[in-house]
Amino acid sequence: MTSSSEVYIEGTSDDPVVRARAAVRDAHDRLRAGLATAVRGTPQDGGQRGPVEFCTGELRRHLAATEQTLYAAASGAAGTRLLVRALRTTAGALDRRIDGLAGDGDAASVAAGARAVEAILDVHLTTEETVLLPALADLPGADLPGLVADLTTLLEGGRLETPSVVDVREIPHGQRHPRIFARYARLAPGEGFVLVNNHDPKPLRREFEATHPGTHTWDYVESGPDVWRVRIGRAAAEG
Question: What is the model's pTM?
Answer without folding.
Answer: 0.85
